[in-house]
């Protein structure tokens, strides 16, 4: 089997005082070994919760994760005991977040934090861990790495902190790294360096990457495959070339149209040019969830919710424009 990860019908529900909300709605996708797979969508689309669900980081009891299956490296994560899961996730899957300052402890040194996964998951001595951290700092391009070991997070620049977080994410040489908007807080030049670094590390270590972003420019630069998410569902799934060649869901087309020219500054709100807002998951529109914002909406779109239709070569879109048969039935 050449897939590293096969997620089938992942569902994540949160219950609050206004009842239960399905934030991730039957999401299915695959990640091949050493592949870089994007999850792209506006904030509130469910892409972060999808990854937190895979990592077992959704807080219970308010959050509940279920799936038909989550095959990861030969075992079904939905069938493991909590102990087995913790071990597997810590060693073989790791995660890098957007703002390193909030995930780093301000009063612990870099070597203590970056080396922590090794002290949890291996029996290496402190000395050996220190050497591994030093080596990882070199690998991720931190200048004067030896001098940074005993530094505190605030003593590093944002770009160096993110490099250190990537070092931490890769220190156990995981099979899968999930990166959630890892460069959004960084300036354009540093962002480009970090993305290039991640691709180089994938090439060298063979770690597969799930890249979570609101930025189709980042998807174009580094991903092999793409899943476009809207209001908790995957609305389009394709090889990266197919997606940019034949964007087939009106939402994907709107995202593409909202990419600013290279001369414009990248910013977190570059998608604001799609008119309308992501629907409130507590009160979803009937039919296609995108219909209130869709320029192509037809009468059926307001009534019936479309399924993912296979357009060939694994390219799928959830839209009545591509499911003539379903629309007629
Ligand atoms: Fe637009 Fe209808 Fe397709 Fe939804 S199903 S994206 S409303 S055309
Ligand atoms: Mg997010």
Write a concise synopsis of the structure shown.
GO terms for molecular function: ATP binding; ATP hydrolysis activity. With 329 residues, the chain is an alpha/beta fold.
What report would you give on this structure?
The chain is of the alpha/beta class and 329 residues long. Helices cover 33% and strands 23% of the residues. It has a single domain, classed as 3-Layer(aba) Sandwich (Rossmann fold), CATH 3.40.50.300. It has helices at 47-55, 82-92, 100-103, 110-114, 116-121, 126-139, 145-148, 158-170, 188-205, 216-222, 240-245, 250-257, 324-328; strands spanning 3-16, 19-32, 36-40, 63-66, 69-72, 75-76, 93-96, 176-180, 208-213, 225-230, 233-239, 308-310, 316-318. Strands 7-8-9-3-10-11-13-12 form an 8-stranded mixed sheet, with helices on both faces. Helix 6 packs across helix 8 (158-170) and helix 8 (158-170) packs parallel to helix 9 (188-205). 39% of the residues are buried. Mean pLDDT is 90; it is low at 268-272. The structure holds iron/sulfur cluster (SF4) and magnesium ion. Iron/sulfur cluster is lined by residues 249-250, 288, 290-291, 294, 296-298, 301, 306, 319-321. Magnesium ion is lined by residues 43, 48, 180. One of its GO terms (cellular component) is plasma membrane. This is ABC transporter ATP-binding protein.
